[in-house]
Amino acid sequence: MSDKDFLAQRFEEHRPHLRAVAYRMLGSLSEAEDAVQEAWFKLSRSDADEVQNLGGWLTTVVGRVCLDMLRSRATRREDPLHDQEGRIRLPDPIVSGADGIDPEQEIILADSVGIALMVILETLSPAERLAFVLHDMFAVPFDEIAPVLGRTAATTRQLASRARRRVQDAAPAPDTDPARLRTVVDAFLAASRGGDFDALVAVLDPEIVARSDGGTLLPSLLRRGAAEVASQAITFARFAQAGHPILVNGLPGVASLSAQGELISVMAFTVRNGRITALDILTDPERLARIDLGVLGG
Predict the structure, then answer these.
(1) Helix ranges (DSSP H) in 27-152
(2) Which CATH class is domain 178-296?
(3) Residue 207 and residue 80: Cα distance in Å, rounded?
(4) 243-248 and 221-224: which strand pairing?
(5) Topology of domain 3-83+114-170, CATH
(6) Of 73, 183, 241, 278, which sits 20 to 30 A from 143 (CA to CA)?
(7) First to last CA, the chain
(8) What span, in angstroms and rounded, lies between the C-alpha atoms of 37 and 19?
């Protein structure tokens, strides 16, 4: 085995971890792959023999690449949750079968990174996001993060602390018991299919936020409050009629198919205290086309 082949083998051992870092930083599976590949290019052009802790080195390299990508988004003046035309832009969901996630997805989702948390991460500044993701989610010491940001360790610690407060305030810990969550989701679907307004309101948190990302071809939707969201029951019913149970970022969700068997939506639910606090619906045909329908079991 050549030195380059050996280095490539060592890199592949770290790839799942690096994808997990990049996904939390970017909220995009395709951009995360690009960031990981860029880390490989940087490694292959470096003197790897001088790297004592390859995993730590690669983690900070991916962090720096992602930071540059996030800053590039900022210079394009994109709102964290809206693109330049004002369309809602949800993070990419990680979709798996209702029976469980595969080992590679399990690594990416090791910290129960639900869509609701990913949405909050999108609202952080690039520096805050890097400090929070690397330290709080991957235990990278502040003195290793600081050089990536060009800040002192103390300032980096402050960035992470500020990000942590924002995350905790905006995304309180959700319910995670799969059976309980599936019961809530099933109740929502049943009420949607039956057009039962009162039953829908009963399963929704009074302050629920519902977001729909249709990409460039379909309109975006943002609704707040139980009554407002329940009033969209007819729209939801269209998706619910052909709903298949799935896991979205490790939590119970729903995939809906057209009569032709094409994926038309992925619905992610955030539940707290037995009520749905956030409903995130991806209807973007371009991104839906990348999802493997094999997870539906057919």
Answers:
(1) 29-44, 54-75, 103-108, 115-122, 126-132, 142-149
(2) alpha beta
(3) 21
(4) unpaired
(5) Butyryl-CoA Dehydrogenase, subunit A; domain 3 (1.20.140)
(6) 73
(7) 41
(8) 10
- Max CA pair span of the chain: 67
Beta bridge partners of 256: 243, 265
Give the C-alpha separation, 169 to 277, whole Å.
14
* Strand locations in the chain (E): 95-97, 204-213, 221-224, 243-248, 251-257, 263-272, 275-282
Which neighbouring-strand residues pair with 269?
A: 279
Per-residue confidence in pLDDT tens, the chain, 298 aa: 677 788 788 899 999 999 999 999 999 999 999 999 999 999 888 776 677 788 899 999 999 999 999 998 766 555 556 555 556 789 999 898 877 766 666 666 665 678 888 888 988 999 999 999 999 999 999 999 999 999 999 999 999 999 999 988 887 778 878 889 999 999 998 888 888 899 999 999 999 999 989 888 777 888 899 999 998 866 666 555 678 889 898 888 999 888 788 898 899 999 999 999 999 999 999 999 998 888 776 5
* CA–CA gap between residue 95 and residue 297 (Å, rounded): 13
Alpha-carbon dihedral angle through residues 82, 215, 122, 92, given to the nearest 10 degrees: 180
Q: Where are the domains of the chain?
A: 3-83+114-170, 178-296
